[in-house]
UniProtKB/TrEMBL annotation, chains A, B, C:
InterPro entries: Ion_tolerance_CutA (IPR004323), N-reg_PII-like_a/b (IPR011322), N-reg_PII/ATP_PRibTrfase_C (IPR015867)
One of the Pfam families matching this protein, by short name: CutA1
Similarity section: Belongs to the CutA family.
Protein name, per record: Divalent-cation tolerance protein CutA
Domain of life: Bacteria
Species, as recorded: Jiella sonneratiae
PANTHER family: DIVALENT CATION TOLERANCE CUTA-RELATED, FI09726P
């Protein structure tokens, strides 16, 4: 187990994903952000109905103790009222990468 | 740790991935399904040989206690004899998203 | 929990990702490798500066006890001095897929 988390949140446009990524990096709430530039086909239940939407997924690598601060910053910047924010703890990492994430992210 | 799992399964076409997603949502075995619309280059060992194939990856968010039911529904709908089904437990989530997954998925 | 890990590493080109995948499969350090063929927009802090780069992400399924050997092989084949290598343990898997990963990967 490591102290790193990968946070996923889907966005309604590539531009939104890029802007949120920029804000997280500006605030040192992320070591890196990845956005596949091609859309995902998203299908889900919402308010009792089946929905379909094109979305773009932002993946954020940060320290696990920054999850709440990072989620709050995502909510503040995100166009959805309730963006779905999921965090997956990294279980294995090489030492150099662990040190890099630890160094570049701000303290909680 | 949360009660949510993200299930990944690769499919031989975008259409297959969409159809499986539709069935899981119909049966309330998933809160949401995401499919990157661009293919993945998949390379693997199978029956003693190196294989290469274009695939599309379906990601399913559901309750962890539905993993078996969801995997059974994927196997029933999937064109492969043995689809590779992997589940990653979500470790962190915001409260609103956790409540949404809990609400929209059926009970096990 | 399972004995399987999914390892992620980003590469500066699709060709690099394919070559690393090929080496891991040659050495039986992976059961399968997946590379979305479309690039990701990668933004990160590196050496005190904000950077942006197109990258391709290689995802490797292997036995968890091969993480170190797999990471060493990735470092040896990777054009970056310090590739960022993250491993996520698979928490749920169907029995046939677990047996396949166990069988095709070499012993540690």
């Amino acid at each position: 187990m490591t102290d790193i988390v990968e946070i996923h949140v889907t966005c309604p446009s590539l531009l939104d994903a890029r802007e949120i990524a920029g804000k997280l990096l500006d605030e040192k709430l992320a070591a890196c952000c990845n956005i596949p530039v091609k859309e995902i086909d998203s299908r889900f239940w919402w308010q009792g109905k089946r929905q379909r939407q094109d979305e773009w997924r932002l993946a954020v690598k940060t320290r696990a103790d920054l999850f709440e601060a990072c989620a709050a910053a995502i909510r503040a910047a995100h166009p959805y009222e309730t963006p779905a924010i999921f965090g997956f703890r990294v279980d294995f990492v090489d030492a150099a990468t662990a040190a890099w994430v630890e160094e570049v992210c701000r303290k909680p």
